[in-house]
Design goal:
Jelly Rolls, 53% strand, seven-stranded antiparallel sheet, five-stranded antiparallel sheet, mainly beta, single chain, Immunoglobulin-like
Length: 296
């Protein structure tokens, strides 16, 4: 009986993990004026509604079920090429940055689903999933794990994908943010990303921060304009690698940091970088910490 109960628990836990993406099959849509919105997902349709052009639409039929999510970069009068973007949470229409996610308390091993996509020119699409938690002692959000996938080339039939998470924190997250984009920093007309049956797979135990690991990474100012300061605590003297990644997952800035034990600070020059959302990673070996940085 105990063995049966344990197996039942594992099956239930696996099902709960897979169910943690709201409206994951994009079966539920609501009509807002002249366009449809996938329930519990925000996008840029409110910004382009005045032109009658929409970059987030419902596709039918789905890989399974009745519908799927279609994100298509489209030329919009007066706005240029607008990427197809969808976020699980809230999207700032002006900056096109995600401003909130949804409650989430699991530690999945990977983000999976089904996709089709086609990239034109240099408009590389991408998917970002970030798990965070509120850290009361520092009154700030800590990144627990990140899952990032840049898209290039094409997949013209429904195929499965399974992208692993990289964990930076051993505690449970409290928030999940999912950001899907048909294009990168330079969108090309007709870039598209179709998605269906999104889910989380597996689970990961807590991680050991490791000796000499970096703690408490702060970025100021954030948003940055011209440069920013990265402040952190190192448990021992160490040579660290600082890398800044753009929305395509490409390293756009890299430098070595000679850290002393205790509080450290280093300056990062961003004058040559275009405005947008970046990911700062600082660490040694397989250990590290990350922070999202907005460059104006």
């Amino acid at each position: 009986m105990r063995k049966f109960s344990f197996i039942l628990f594992l099956v239930f836990a696996a099902a709960m993990t897979r169910a943690q993406v709201p409206n994951n099959g994009f079966e539920n849509w609501s009509t807002v004026g002249a366009y449809d919105m996938p329930d519990q997902w925000d996008n840029l349709n409110p910004s382009t509604a005045g032109t009658g052009i929409f970059t987030c639409t419902k596709g039918t039929p789905g890989s399974t079920g009745n519908s799927f999510l279609k994100l298509t970069a489209t030329e919009v009068p007066g706005m240029g090429v607008v990427p197809g973007i969808a976020v699980c949470g809230a999207l700032d229409q002006a900056s096109r940055l995600q401003v909130s996610g949804y409650p989430f308390s699991l530690r999945p091993a990977s983000f999976a689903g089904k996709w089709q996509y086609m990239m034109y020119g240099s408009g590389i699409g991408y998917m970002d999933v970030t798990l965070t938690r509120w850290d009361a002692p520092t009154a700030s959000r800590k990144v627990v794990a990140i899952c990032h996938q840049a898209l290039s080339g094409m997949v013209m039939i429904w195929r499965n994908f399974d992208i692993p998470f990289t964990y930076y924190d051993g505690q449970q997250p409290d928030t999940c943010m999912i950001f899907l984009s048909s294009s990168g920093a330079v969108p090309a007309a007709d870039d598209f990303l179709w998605l269906d049956e999104l889910q989380f797979q597996g689970s990961v135990d807590g991680i050991d921060a490791g000796p000499g690991s970096v703690k408490h990474l702060y970025v100021s100012p954030n948003p940055a304009n011209g440069s920013f300061s990265a402040r952190f605590y190192s448990e021992s003297p160490d040579q660290l690698a600082l890398r800044l990644f753009d929305s395509r997952g490409m390293v756009v800035c890299e430098q070595k940091v000679e850290a002393t034990q205790g509080e450290n600070e280093t300056e990062v020059d961003t004058r040559s970088l275009p405005a947008g959302l970046y990911l700062l990673k600082l660490g040694s070996g397989s250990f590290g910490i990350s922070k999202k940085v907005v460059i104006q």
